[in-house]
Amino acid sequence: MKQKSEILNKVYRFLSLRPRSEKEVADFLKKRKVTPFESGEILKVLKEQKLIDDWEFTKWWVEQRETFKPKGKIALRVELRQKGIPQQIIKETLTCINEENLARKAIAKKMEIYRKLCPEEFFRKISQFLSYRGFSRRTVQKIIFEEEVAKKFENDKI
Q1: What are the extents of the domains in the chain?
Q2: Which fold has domain 54-94?
Q3: What percentage of the chain carries pLDDT values higher than 70?
Q4: Taking a C-beta distance cutoff of 8 angstroms, is the pair 134, 73 a contact?
Q5: Is 117 helix (H, G, I), strand (E, B) or coil?
Q6: In 3-state terms, what secondary structure has residue 10?
Q7: What DSSP designation does 116 have?
């Protein structure tokens, strides 16, 4: 029993760093050479204590991305799949995201640097950056069009 409580304490420390998906905790236990039976028992205890919940984890993950490092739905979907989140949870969570607002937020810091470039280079850089961050082609094109219109308007004012 001592071994089980030691393992549980290690899991509690692991969970204290940030929320985790069920798969992340299962992988953690597997690395620690915990048997599948014990692992199942520990996961059950953690679920009962509401310390692991894939729905809550997914909401938290998306909020963190929106706040600190905006990414598009494509990138978020990949990250969440890697975390072992079921497709249905991912699908329902990502329907609430406004990808265009996230794209604007993602390029906000880059705009001052990019605005100094020639128009072709400017739009190429925006496109590459947003694509790299996992934004859809449609979103990238819309943002580029908005920036193109804004740039023309800015040039007409001068």
Answers
A1: 2-48, 54-94, 99-157
A2: Arc Repressor Mutant, subunit A (1.10.10)
A3: 92
A4: yes
A5: coil
A6: helix
A7: T
- pTM of the predicted model as reported, rounded to 2 decimal places: 0.83
First to last CA, the chain: 77
Residues 6 or more apart whose CB falls under 8 angstroms from that of 33 comprise: none
- pLDDT for 124 beyond 50: yes
Please give the Cα distance from 1 to 47 (Å, whole number): 20
Q: Which two tokens stand for residue 30?
A: 């597997």
- What type of residue sits at position 96? C
Tokens linked to 130 = 């947003």
Contact indicator for 62, 99 with CB cutoff of 8 Å? no
Give residues with Cβ within 8 angstroms of 10, minimum separation 6. 32
CB 70 within 8 A of CB 137: no
pLDDT above 60: residue 153: no
Amino acid identity, position 84: G
